[in-house]
Structures are given as structure tokens and as C-alpha cells.
Design goal:
- With 179 residues, the protein is an all-alpha fold.
- The chain folds into 2 domains: 113 residues, Rna Polymerase Sigma Factor, Chain: A; 63 residues, Winged helix-like DNA-binding domain superfamily/Winged helix DNA-binding domain (Arc Repressor Mutant, subunit A).
- It has 9 helices and no strands.
- The radius of gyration is 17 Å and the shape is globular.
- Keywords: DNA-binding, Sigma factor, Transcription, Transcription regulation.
Length: 179
């Protein structure tokens, strides 16, 4: 089913649940991995994915189709993941740097963390980046999104995104070159 078909079926109340199930099937895995790269732990990613799709369901009737459906969903997922990190920060009464340090510890000691030493070092390098650079790098490098799509998701200009990506790559190379 194409996005337009899903949207049309969702607006017909008899097909709403079926259409939404199809939407979840279409996007759940991509959204999970996008969120997982932000919040790191599997359990947190599952919670944020659930919150994302609840928000999508509640707001799908008002989706204006001014953007692509997947970029709209990615934007919701990104905001939910960042909100989750901010909630962690508030709940623990710590700085965002402390939250990222905790996430880094999860990489090294957490269950459900796969990857060899190089992959773990890359993930740690990503956690050392400023939030915007990390998001742009993840969406461009791992999710293979076009700059135009990332601009739509983040509300940032393509030029600024290219600069953020370039800076992120340089910082990651420096981080990986240490030792």
C-alpha cells in the first residue's frame, strides 16, 4: 500500500484500524532503529516507538500532506526520542552531558547491545557529538536520507545540514583516530 492509499483508507472510518496497522508495518522497523540510535537502549526505544505511533494515530486525521508521510513520522519520532532524553535529564536532575555519559555506559555494559569493538567505538563517538550533528549524521549515514528529507524532519536548511554533517564526520574521524 502506498502512503496515499494508507491515508485515504485511514480517513474512511471502517478501514481506520487496518490502515493504521499497515502504516505501522511499513514504518515500525525504520522508526525503531532511528529512535534506538538516539536513546540507545532497547527498552527505551520500544517505549518511544510506542509513544510515536500513538501520536501518529491521534494526529493522522489532521496530517495535511504538505510533506511526505515518512518525514512527518520521522519528525514525530525524533521529537519523541529527544523528549525522552530530556525527561531522563529532569528525572535524574542531571545535565544532558550526564545523560549522554549514562547512554555511553549502556553501550559498553548494556544487554541487547550488539556490535564489535569498532561499532561500539563509533556509537561512543556519536554520543560525543552535539545533538544536532548526531541527528544529522544518523539520518544521513545510517538511514540514508536525502538532505531535503532531513531538512523537512528537522526544520533546518539544507546548507546548515551539510555543514553539520561535515563537522560530525570530522569529529568522528578525530574520535576514532584517538588511542
Amino acid at each position: 500500500m502506498e502512503d496515499k492509499e494508507i491515508l485515504h483508507a485511514f480517513k474512511v472510518s471502517a478501514n481506520k484500524d487496518l490502515a493504521f496497522r499497515r502504516l505501522v508495518e511499513e514504518y515500525q522497523e525504520r522508526i525503531y532503529w532511528h529512535i534506538r540510535k538516539i536513546v540507545i537502549t532497547h527498552d527505551d526505544a520500544d517505549d518511544v516507538v510506542q509513544e510515536t505511533f500513538i501520536k501518529v494515530y491521534k494526529n493522522l486525521d489532521s496530517f495535511r500532506e504538505a510533506s511526505q508521510l515518512f518525514t512527518w513520522i520521522y519528525r514525530i519520532a525524533t521529537n519523541e526520542a529527544l523528549n525522552h532524553l530530556k525527561k531522563m535529564q529532569r528525572k535524574q536532575s542531571v545535565s544532558m552531558d550526564d545523560v549522554y555519559h549514562e547512554l555511553e555506559n549502556h553501550l559498553s555494559h548494556g544487554v541487547n547491545i550488539d556490535g564489535d569493538e569498532i561499532q561500539l567505538k563509533l556509537q561512543k563517538a556519536l554520543l560525543s557529538l552535539p545533538e544536532k550533528q548526531r541527528l544529522v549524521f544518523n539520518m544521513r549515514y545510517f538511514d540514508d536520507l536525502k538532505y531535503d528529507d532531513i531538512a523537512e524532519i528537522t526544520g533546518t536548511s539544507v546548507g546548515a545540514l551539510k555543514a553539520s554533517y561535515h563537522l560530525a564526520v570530522k569529529k568522528i574521524e578525530e574520535y576514532l583516530g584517538k588511542d
